[in-house]
Structure formats: C-alpha cells, structure tokens
Design brief:
The protein is an alpha/beta fold and 195 residues long. This is Dihydrofolate reductase. It holds the Pfam family RibD_C. InterPro entries: DHFR-like_dom_sf, RibDG_C.
Length: 195
C-alpha cells in the first residue's frame, strides 16, 4: 500500500492562498528555471530548477490518486477534466456538480475525507495518494490518515489567507526529520509522520 501525502506550496506563515484564493508569489518557482517537467497533463509544463525537477520527478510519478476539496475543484474547473498529478481525482463535496462539462473525466465525487481516502487508496494500490492542503489536510491529519507531509515552502509572508492545515484542532502530531531540497523560490520539506 502506498502513502497518503498531504501536499501544497505554503508561505512561511502557513498559507496556501490568500483570502480570495489567489496564490500570488507562492507559485513563482513553477516557472523560474531551465528544466521542463510535467505532472499528469502533458499540456501543462513547469519550468523549474534542476533540484526542484529532481524532487518532482522522484515524487509525482508515484502519485496515482489525488484528493481535493470542492473549493479547489471550482477554482480550477477541475483542470478541465485532466488531473494535475496522478490519474484520478477524488473531490470531497456534499454537492457534486450537475453541469460540469467533463462527465467522462477521471473524477469521483465523495462525501467526507475518510471515504475519499479509502477510495483513493483502493484506486492507488501500491502507489501514493496526495491530499491538497487546506481543510481536508487538517481533517485527514486529525483522523490519523496522513503518512507524509510535502511542505513546499515559498519565501513569502502572506499575513492572512487559507491555512495549509485549515482549522486543525486535533492532537499534537510529531514528524520525523525532513528531507530538504533547496530550489529557487522554494524549499521542499518532505516529512514522515512519526508513528
């Protein structure tokens, strides 16, 4: 069985977006290097440093399932039916869309983080599952469902915004020492949750 990895690009003060869901300089590193690399969409290249490309190419290909919330789904329009990473997206929502123009896309709408993780793990098999930062990350961490945290730290203090762990109010969680990869405008911090 693969790992469940909570992942996002995060400001120094812990935000994944501002209050209007803008990412501002958080994503600068996706386009400031000479090395072209891809997630699941061959039409969406990233241009990063060699260090970031090596990190991406080591971790992203092992992700088979992604879990996102309805907010991110709506903001991105579900990436027009093409998963950003992995080959299937599980969207946690109480109200699946009824008029999304990509009904055959590999997206499944589920009710609750536990159901989403169970279905995503079943789909992923021996591969990993990614949970995008925000309230879902906090819910999954509180439920003991997270194995690793991929904290891609951007050098910005946002002051306010959407938190990486949402409104997490669960127990204290200890992490192992991180694997650290220094990119340009990003530091990749990859932790295992201590068990």
């Amino acid at each position: 069985m693969g790992n469940v990895i909570a992942s996002a690009v995060v400001s120094l003060d812990g935000f994944v977006a501002d209050l209007e869901d803008g990412v501002g300089p958080l994503f600068d590193w996706y386009g400031n290097g000479p090395v072209e690399t891809f997630g699941a969409d061959p039409g969406r290249p990233f241009h990063v440093t060699q260090a970031s490309a090596d990190y991406i190419n080591e971790t992203w290909p092992n992700i088979r399932s992604c879990i996102i919330g309805r907010r991110l789904f709506d903001i991105t329009n579900g990436w027009n039916g093409v998963p950003a990473v992995g080959d299937h997206v599980f969207v946690v929502t109480h109200e699946p869309p009824t008029d999304w123009p990509f009904p055959d896309a590999p997206f499944t709408f589920v009710n609750g983080i536990e159901e989403a993780v169970a279905q995503a793990k079943a789909h992923a098999g021996d591969h990993d599952v990614s949970i995008t930062g925000g309230n879902l990350t906090g819910q999954a961490l509180a439920a003991g469902l997270v194995d690793e945290i991929a904290y891609n730290l951007a050098p910005v203090v946002m002051g306010t915004g959407r938190k990486f762990f949402g409104d997490y109010a669960g127990p204290q969680v200890l992490l192992d020492n991180p694997r650290i990869v220094e990119g340009d405008r990003v530091t990749h911090l990859h932790y295992r949750v201590s068990r």
